């Protein structure tokens, strides 16, 4: 059995070593395709792969067509919007993610971005503190929970909205559950986004919603760039000089954001929320174990596509 690790944004070496150990202990072969850049290289590499581990790498119908021997794709991470699930089902390929394995890393980066924003991008002028500020967590999944845990240490007042998470689950963590996104945005000084990119959420963070935030508000996005209605956010930030936007997923309109909103907009050059050795080890090794469990015992825990 051939297991391909196809990561345009590579894992830390220590994580690759851990993945290799799991795969070889099961008697399988590990093939590494890193920083491949062009899709053609991925199409070539998947030809004889029985299993693939990916990150944000795109697995679409063309890749699935080329992967004649493929049985399973594991997205080492949470969001699987980069995999065409219906096409995978049509090709009889099981798709899994590794929920929770990289969430702390993403949550820590959200705070890195928050501190940078409230300290005026570290330009030396007098900034503000997070203590006592109202933090809104938009979606209370694995990352949202870690954000809440860290926010307690900062002494923030914590609110969350999640259409799919029961109020009691949120409130058990000492977080105030609000009834709508609108209420979250109108209540909180800082909103941290943790929603997936779905048909419903794409472009949903728009002018009307963000405009509900109080004066001096900060929006932090370590989720997906697609959830932001960029044209509307640009318009709003033009009208409201008090708003700040921080992200680790470079907007399509990055040049415009950077030119117009210097000092209150920042994006890392590459998506890097989950880019820590710990997150790479956790998610990568979980992916390897899930592949072995699937190929040896047919275990489909964490399957995300229909059969
Ligand atoms: C995820 O969905 O797990 C995160 O967004 C991390 O993505 P990455 O593996 O591309 O860094």
Automatic annotation (TrEMBL):
Keywords for the protein's UniProt record, in alphabetical order: Oxidoreductase
Please report the stretch or stretches of sequence annotated as the D-isomer specific 2-hydroxyacid dehydrogenase catalytic domain: 22-305
Q: Which GO terms describe its molecular function?
A: NAD binding; oxidoreductase activity, acting on the CH-OH group of donors, NAD or NADP as acceptor
The record's SUPFAM superfamilies line, in alphabetical order, gives: Formate/glycerate dehydrogenase catalytic domain-like, NAD(P)-binding Rossmann-fold domains
Domain D-isomer specific 2-hydroxyacid dehydrogenase NAD-binding residues, every copy: 123-250
Alphabetical list of PANTHER family matching this protein: FORMATE DEHYDROGENASE 1, HYDROXYPYRUVATE REDUCTASE
Q: Which family is this protein grouped under?
A: Belongs to the D-isomer specific 2-hydroxyacid dehydrogenase family.
What's the protein called, per UniProt?
A: NAD(P)-binding domain-containing protein
